[in-house]
Amino acid sequence: MKGLLSLMTFVPMIGAIAILFTDRKYKDAIRTTAAVATGIPLFLSLVLMWNFDKDKKPYDWSAGLASYEDQAEAAGFQFVESHVWIDRLSEGAMPIKYYMGVDGLSYPMVLLTALLSFFCVFAAWNIEKGVKGFFALFLLLETGMMGVFCSLDFFLFYVFWEVMLLPMYFLIGVWGGPRKEYAAIKFFLYTLFGSVLMLIAMLAFYFGSEPHTFDLIALTHKAPVWASEMRMALFLAFFIAFAVKVPVFPFHTWLPDAHVEAPTAISAILAGVLLKMGLYGMLRINFPLLPEAFRDFGPWLAALGFINIVYGALCAMAQKDLKKMVAYSSISHLGFCLLGIAAVNSYGMIGCVFQMFAHGLTSAMLFLLVGVVYDRAHHRNIDGFGGLGVVMPVYTGITALAFMASLGLPALCGFVGEALSLLGGWGSTQYNLKWITLLSATGIVFTAGYFLWAFQRVFLGPLNEKYRTMPDANPRELFTLIPIGILVIVFGIFPALLITPMSAALNTLVGMLRG
Amino acid sequence: MTTLSTLESLKYAYPETALAFVLVLVILLDLVPAIRQRRIAMTMTITGLILTLIATLVHIYILGREGNPNAGYSLFEGMIVFSRFTLFFKVILVLTALLVALFSIRSPQVKAAGEGEYCTLLLSGTLGCFLMAAASDFLMVYLSIELVSISSYVMVGFYRKDRKSAEAALKYVIYGAVASGLMIFGMSLLYGLAGSTQFGQVYEALAAKTGQGAVSTASFVFSFLLVLAGFGYKIACFPFHMWCPDVYEGAPTPITAFLSVGPKAAGFAALIQFFYANLSVPGAGGTFHALAGTHWPWVLALVSVATMTAGNLGAVPQTNVKRMLAYSSIAHAGYLLMPFVMLSETGLQAILVYLVIYLLMNMGAFLVLIVVAERAGEELKDFRGLGWKCPSVAVPMAIFLFSLTGLPPLAGFIGKVWLFMPVIEGKWYWLAVAGVLNSVVSLYYYVKVVRAMFLEGIPSSGERMERMAVPALYQVLLWALAVPTVWFGLSFGGLSELAKKSAQLYLGH
Q: Do A207 and B425 touch (CB under 8 A)?
């Protein structure tokens, strides 16, 4: 099974290169190439799922393990690959490696990336302008996303992390809505601001470790010792870098712009995968590398989670634009993840990662749904519709499913993550988070409020005569929506499907953070 | 280290000899009308530069074969230094000159104004840079700087009939005269303190005198600040950068490309050797520390931050791409000063790595500017829709600009990582933070060009696009610069090794 992760990461890039050498005239050939190049990783992710050892637990290891593969296996990673990339950057340093592997934390994210990328290709099938560029950049984006979730070397991680920015800038900037230039550069500047701080902290870790290394496993298990001010400074540098991506209040202002202006498929990828990278980075790098600082910061994290939940929900409620409402709902939903992490117990942690996965499915679905109605009506004004349930029954049904999943109806996937996060927060033994958890729970009410209110205004009531002839969702759209819809139900009813493979890694993480 | 006499030195001075020989040949042959009309000056120049490059590489090979990579010689009775460090710079310099010559082959203005003169000036400027990069005596430093400056003054004003070009040349002369005046005054003060003009001896005298407390801090600081004016003018650092935007904008574009890399690199070589050899005490493990009482690393760290900030903030409002690139080159001088003040071998290595990468990406950006200016102009609006009209130029330009910003997987990112590594290693965190925040600012203006190329002027579907044809020479050169810009971003082990081997200074003491 060696090389599986590399294949998943680089097959899209090969597809992108193939597209670059295709003549622009053959639009369908380009689209098909993109579908194949994302289909292969999806298939491979099923292979990964089949072969993933769910019971594998990290075991104690000393520095005696010979190869990097063995070290990673010992730390609980699977499908590990390791090759020397740059032999020696400075005197007496360890090499920079091409070092890949998945554990229970990255496993759901890899699945999510493969899944959403494949379906978003079909959501973007009707793009006519610059087809070649669009799909080449899209595939490059998938390479970047996969790479981030699989890297075990900090340098490699950083390269993949930043590689994503370029395609994203063009995808929003060229194929986006009316304010696309503004949204694209805002996204770019915000994220770059965060990542340069990460670069400094990364280099500080490199020079702080003995021997100098970028190896994340080595850094996690033998983290350099810092003075307390330095520790907090490094922690904040990492935290800001990742918080921009999540986004955590007050770094969230790029999100509504980018999500609203981006084309449908890209909004879905942004919300579905890119936002998860911020949380993934916190869980993989920020907190495990600086557990002491994390312990000082825990209550603040919970407070930020609460602000995200309630503030995001209130903003969503105030929106007139359907897409903007969905964008703010992401801010609100990801607040639960922060709360779950701050709890530092296995309920909270599992709730967090489950919520990351579930939100990936529901938010992607919501953006795709908004795209469907926008393609027909050419506006997204919530008050501009009315009674669409009469003319588009299938579409209405799927939307109802997505809204319900998103607002956390039991038996749908959104419920599990939120419930576990709140449960974790309430039962936290590390800090007293009872009040914050209680207040955060009110967010669920607001969420139900804006989703139901929007549903009512768009789909119920008297039919807006303008849209009497509006066609229902077509087969292509159904092909993107129904599989995700089914997964939303499946993971809602059988959350153990996801919880079992990730619990070993997350429990280790909790142990590490508790100290 | 041995000091060689003039005659013995000659066999270590092949590149300079080759350059001087071609220079004289071009001047002489250009005087013969029959030959002048056949316009072979440019061919001869390019051949001569290739020979120079080969001679430099031969020197590197021989020096490597001699076994001790540290080996170096002091040539011409201690006037210039022959070491891996200076040879590395010479490769950068000759490549710059070669690219500039290739950029100018097609230029009708150059042909009209006189190819022979143009080539002569380019060669003498390059020779000056060679000497400046290797100088190890105050007099040599001054003379080589003047040789570069005087050649540059004329090159900047080369389009005599163009008002902007003439104005730029005049500005350049006035600034240059003031800077070199200040510099030689500073040098004379140092000579007064040390009693010698030769690098190693100055250090010994100064170290002995500071040991006895015989030299006041004020006189030290005063003299090195004055000397800094000369170097600062060459590398265009704050507050000696004022001339830069006007001169770069007015000069012929290939010359701007030359000024933004050649004299800047040579200036850094001279700056490094001057400060490390005279005002630093070598310590263990390839590190140095500043001579007691001079505090110059602090002064230069502040200069570094001021330079990058002035460059980046100045670039933001520009609408003329050439002027924007001028400000960007100021900013890059600021970045390069960061590892310089670290006084470590890693720092020197970082500067060498960065200069190679900077050469590629900056030259590339200027080449695109030349291509676009031939068709349209140098303004931002002239780049509108280029990505759709002519992707074979716009894509390399995007690569160069993102590389200048420092984004992976491009070489510029590796360069930035290298620049920040010694700074973090030396625990100058505030300097690193200032540096990275500046690179975020730089994204804003580099992306303005990318935005004009790709995000604006998008043809609506069905509309027939007029394609832009690009001369084959330019196209080949563009890819020749763009491919390594990507390559070094992915595989930089070799470059780092090479820089490491070359990062040993000959100090003369």
A: yes
